[in-house]
Write a structure and sequence with these properties.
The structure is a single chain. This protein is an alpha/beta fold and 435 residues long. It has three domains: 2-198, Rossmann fold (3-Layer(aba) Sandwich); 208-291, N-(1-d-carboxylethyl)-l-norvaline Dehydrogenase, domain 2; 298-432, Rossmann fold (3-Layer(aba) Sandwich). It contains 18 helices and 14 strands. The protein has helices at residues 10-21, 33-40, 51-61, 96-105, 125-136, 154-159, 172-184, 186-190, 200-231, 235-243, 264-277, 286-308, 336-346, 359-365, 375-379, 392-395, 399-405, 420-425, and strands at 2-6, 25-29, 64-67, 78-81, 114-117, 141-144, 164-167, 195-198, 317-321, 350-354, 370-371, 384-387, 410-413, 429-431. α1 crosses α3 and α9 (200-231) crosses α11 (264-277). The structure holds nicotinamide-adenine-dinucleotide. Nicotinamide-adenine-dinucleotide is lined by residues 6-12, 29-32, 35, 82-85, 97, 100-101, 104, 119-120, 147, 149, 151, 262-263.
């Protein structure tokens, strides 16, 4: 099928290359000419495992084209909308990019074609956009097909998602949309992927409620970590024990620095803003606590660092291992790790920061941090080591070797990802989260 993908960020670039991998002919559009140039040359503009390979394969097959010219989408049967919906100044989602993309796209859409939203949007957006599209291009249909990919696993999650959700209008237009999307995802559906057909607002809500639930689960265990710390309990053992109950489950129950990235934080805030607009703000009051618990983790680590350094961090050498909001990504949007590194710098510490992939993205936001190109360089003569992103490279550090590099053997394991016993045995003062 001829498909267009509008917006080539973390979601759109992976989606476009994955659609080509599934055999479709793809035109991918972005307003950023540098990004388009890099993608066209087979150079992934961000770190995502597997993306360079499927991108190269798509380019070699001749099934993908990258452009800044919207006119090239003409003739695509399905137009995926994958532009950003960042947090606006009030906490609500900034819809500028969606509105501008729709305005640029609409003149090139014809009757019988489908505009398929993938971005995460406030409930009610699809109905609004559908009305506009209907007026401009009678016979074109707007549907919503939210995306659940996890950065670090984005290719796998796009090609083999755990479910597909189609938000469609009622009537024949809805049935045609289901047929078109079934054709797009034929390979995926043949693998037995569950597919749920719902109305437009349900599809929008599925996405934000999934993220609200995940954020709540993380903040729940971090709240338990706060209590475990003062009660002398171990939150990791607690999570193992409650996780055996399959109504609870062990996943997403790792206490640490909390969530960050380009989705969960802004999505829970936008969800609250939208609920308030709809007159049901109370229903999501609890998300304010979820957000507050999450942000407290960062302050807690800064306080702990200060305590471990004898009351003040000023003038001390601090090794920060990890800057990305999660491992296997170079995404530092709202990253707890980068936030903590920046706060320590502000308090006068000499911060030596290293991330296997995110030094360059972090440097764009915080150019004043000192970035080094190996864990070993960061650790040299450190008074305190902070592990803030659970990259495998850090999990597998040999504490016996690290102890010889640092000035003082003190470590904060912000992700509970180190072997506490091994680090303690090597002579480190070890502090985990909630342990
Ligand atoms: P991003 O910022 O990485 O990418 C957005 C892209 O859209 C950028 O390349 C930007 O240049 C482009 N763009 C902006 N305005 C445009 C326009 N008018 N026309 C064409 N392109 C335009 O953001 P992202 O992480 O890819 O997220 C995109 C959407 O997907 C958001 O709504 C996000 O919440 C949602 N989402 C993201 C993920 C994820 O893990 N990143 C997962 C699921 C859903």
């Amino acid at each position: 099928m001829r498909i267009s993908v509008i917006g080539c960020g973390y979601l759109g670039a992976v989606h476009a290359a994955s659609m080509a991998k599934l055999g479709h002919e793809v035109v991918a559009v972005d307003v950023d000419p540098v990004k388009i140039e890099r993608l066209a040359a087979g150079d992934a503009p961000f770190f995502e495992p597997g993306l360079p390979e499927i991108l190269a394969e798509a380019i070699a097959s001749g099934r993908i084209r990258f452009t800044t010219d919207y006119a090239e989408v003409a003739g695509s049967r399905v137009h995926f909308l994958a532009v950003g919906t960042p947090q606006g100044p009030t906490g609500a989602a900034d819809m500028t990019y969606i509105d501008s993309a729709i305005a640029s796209l609409t003149p090139h859409v014809a009757a019988g074609e489908f505009v398929v939203g993938k971005s995460t949007v406030p409930v009610g957006t699809a109905a609004r956009l559908a009305a506009g599209l209907q007026d401009a291009v009678p016979g074109a249909t707007l549907v919503w097909n939210p995306e659940f990919l996890r950065e670090g696993f984005a290719v796998q999650d796009t090609i083999s998602p755990d479910r597909l959700v189609y938000g469609v209008p009622s009537g024949p237009a809805g049935s045609s949309a289901v047929e078109a999307l079934d054709e797009v995802y034929a390979t995926t559906l043949a693998e037995g992927t569950p597919r749920l057909v719902v109305n437009l607002p349900t599809a929008e809500l599925v996405k934000v409620s999934a993220n609200a639930f995940l954020a709540t689960k993380i903040s729940f265990i971090n709240a338990m970590a706060e209590i475990a710390e003062v009660a002398g309990a171990d939150v990791t053992a607690l999570a193992d024990a409650i996780g055996h109950d399959d109504r609870i489950g062990r996943k997403f129950l790792n206490a640490g620095l909390g969530f960050g990235g380009g989705c969960l934080p802004k999505d829970i805030r936008a969800f609250q803003a939208r609920a308030t607009e709809l007159g049901v703000g109370e229903s999501l009051d609890f998300l304010a606590d979820v957000d507050a618990i999450n942000l407290r983790r960062r302050a807690h680590v800064v306080t702990l660092a200060s305590e471990l350094l004898g009351g003040a961090v000023a003038g001390k050498r601090v090794a920060v291992l990890g800057l990305a909001f999660k491992p296997n990504s170079d995404d530092v949007r709202d990253s707890p790790a980068l936030d903590i590194a920046a706060r320590l710098l502000e308090l006068g510490a000499t911060v030596s920061a290293y991330d296997p992939e995110a030094n360059h993205t972090a440097a764009r936001i915080h150019p004043s941090l000192s970035y080094v190109d190996s864990a070993s360089a960061a650790l040299q003569d450190a008074d305190l080591v902070l592990v803030l992103t659970e990259w495998n490279e850090f999990r597998t550090l040999d504490p016996a070797a690290v102890v010889a590099q640092v000035a003082s053997p003190v470590v904060i394991d912000g992700r509970n990802c180190l072997d506490r016993d091994a680090w303690t045995a090597a002579g480190f003062t070890y502090r985990g989260m909630g342990r």
